[in-house]
Amino acid sequence: MKKKNFMLIIVGLVIVTCTSCGSNESAKNKEAETKRGITKSAWGTTDGKQVHLFTLTNKSGAQIKISDYGGTITSWVVPDKKGNSSSIVLGFDSLPGYLAKPPYFGATIGRYGNRIAKGKFKIGNDTYTLATNNGKNALHGGLQGFDKVVWDPSPVVDSVASLTLNYTSKDGEEGYPGNLKTSVTFSLSDDNELTIEYNAETDKPTPINLTNHSYFNLTGDVNNNILDHILMINADHYTPVDSTLIPTGEIKSVKGTPFDFTKPGEIGSRINEVKGGYDHNFVLNKKDNSLQLVATLSDSISGRKMEVYTTEPGLQFYSGNFLNGSIKTSNGKAISQHAALCLETQHFPDSPNEPSFPSTILKPGEKYHTITKYKISLQ
Ligand code: GLA
After folding, report:
1. Model confidence pLDDT, tens digit, residues 302-333
2. Rounded to the nearest whole angstrom, what is the distance from the C-alpha of residue 4 to the centroid of ligand 1?
3. Do residues 76 and 89 lie in contact, with contact meaning Cβ atoms separated by under 8 Å?
4. Could you tell me if 363 and 202 are in contact, meaning their C-beta atoms sit under 8 angstroms apart?
């Protein structure tokens, strides 16, 4: 194990790690917070490996914290319309919260985000069997997916603060073929845009579907659920699923269904018509893999708005259906059903078994490269 020294990368004044970002911060700290940069601090150990927490700060003092454990976004603190700052994503203050295996809070998901039916697929004549961890299906990379490993970090401060995390998934890991060299770069711009860029290469054909599993609540308080949030998804179609959330293979129109978010609408207004709540892949209205605006989310309590841009063809809208109050935030609030939602940019679930879906197979010599941006503003 490489022992790395505590490191501080700074542009301008020293950054003071902001945990409260409240109004009683001293003027000095306020000034310091307004400087762009990254700090790195030791954050415990797992599996004999040192874990770190990085804090990316932009010019206006907004901060994103990311751990190299699971490539996990643990908080994203931005001001609301009254100037009060709070985190718009679910997360914990310390590593044990994550080691207790919460449902992927903020994590980088791989090697295959979403489900693969019965944990089986074929490439050519070879059948592969994956670790199954969701009933009979494989979900989010298996028992120890990319969300449960320690990544190798390299922080950079240039015109924006950014953090690259690297992880090589070994041939056969969780049943997947090929050594997969993966890197994920998180950048925080001065106008509160978080860009996540995913890159990978393999030495054997393998399915790949990387995403981030942040749970958003734009009010910054889990006591307000997300049913009042207003959502737009630029998708005329979605992929219906069976009772185990595996797509049936159909591409169905959203017209006249509770899946029609083509115009901004309140999430709670039709959720009761969807058995179990929203946990579906939307087929984005895109002609190519250019970076496009695919969804917006807003909330009137905070006045915050989020825009989602991606190069991906799909978006999983998950309305936090399985949250049930058993997990608590670091300040003791129960995280109840619909306390937060996920907008996971992706290829479609179970693509390796659905030849009509866009392919998720990466071959040797090819470069996997996708980009997703979440942009926060006030309205
Ligand atoms: C994904 C899945 C959901 C659920 C959550 C984690 O978003 O689609 O069904 O498994 O992860 O609880």
Report:
1. 999 999 999 999 999 999 999 999 999 999 99
2. 35
3. yes
4. yes
Sheet containing 279-283, strands listed edge to edge, beginning at the edge strand earlier in sequence: 252-253, 237-239, 279-283, 314-318, 342-346
Q: How far apart are CA 195 and CA 56, in angstroms?
A: 12
* Protein residue with least CA distance to atom 6, ligand 1: 103
Ligand 1 within 6 A of CB of 327: no
212 lines ligand 1 (CB under 6 A): no
CA distance 124 to 146: 26
User: In which element (H, E) is residue 318 found?
Assistant: strand 314-318
What SS3 class is residue 170? coil
Distance from Cα 37 to the centre of ligand 1, integer Å: 33
Output the pTM of the full model: 0.91
Torsion over CA: 359, 360, 361, 365 (sign) = positive
Contact 50, 1 (CB under 8 A): yes
| Atom 5 of ligand 1, nearest CA residue | 103
Q: Which residues are catalytic?
A: 213, 344
What are the DSSP E strand ranges found in 59-107? 63-67, 72-79, 85-87
